[in-house]
Structure formats: C-alpha cells, structure tokens
Amino acid sequence: MSKLNTNTRYLYSKINEYAEHLLSYFPSKLNKIFFVNSGSEASDLAIRMAKAHNANNQIIVMEKVITVILKQVLKSVITI
Hints:
Elements: H1 13-23, H2 39-54, H3 65-77
C-alpha cells in the first residue's frame, strides 16, 4: 500500500505522542494508527486497506447499520 495522507489537520508534534500512547495498549503486531476526520473518510480508508490486504474488490454494504449502532451507543449514555 502506498502512502495516503487523508487529512492535514493533524500536523503537530503531540499527535505522535498520542499515537504512541494508544499503541502501548495493543499487541506489537498492531503497530499503525490512522487518524481521520470523518466517518466517510474512515470508511474509505478501511475499504482501501481491505482491498490492499486481500486483493479482492468485493465489499458488503449494510444499510441503516450505523444508525442502529449509534442509537445503541447513545442509549448506554443517555435516555432516548
């Protein structure tokens, strides 16, 4: 996979410290962090990474899943 800069808003030194701190919680095999600006950017990056990993161009799309998951998360925090 080639380098991909998805956003330039994170160009300051503290982000590297934060990334190292986050990585300290995971096994050494998980050694990359990608900061993105939105859910669509995260989805796009995930699709690109999956395609690069297995050279497969097929994906599954599920409608309304995000809304359901978000509602479940919100229910755990506030009463809807």
